[in-house]
Amino acid sequence: MMEWLQAAPGTAGRLCINVPADRVHCFFPLLQKGFVLGVPVGCPIRTLLRDVLGLTDEYIEARLQTVFLDGKPVDDIDGAFIRDGATLALAPAMPGLMGAMLRRGGFYAPMRSEITHRDDAAPRGIREGRITMKLFGMALMELGPKLLENGIEVDAGDLAQVVGELLGDCREGPDSMVVPEGQARVALRVTIAQEEKK
Question: Residue 86: left (phi > 0), alpha (psi -120 to 50), or beta?
Answer without folding.
Answer: beta
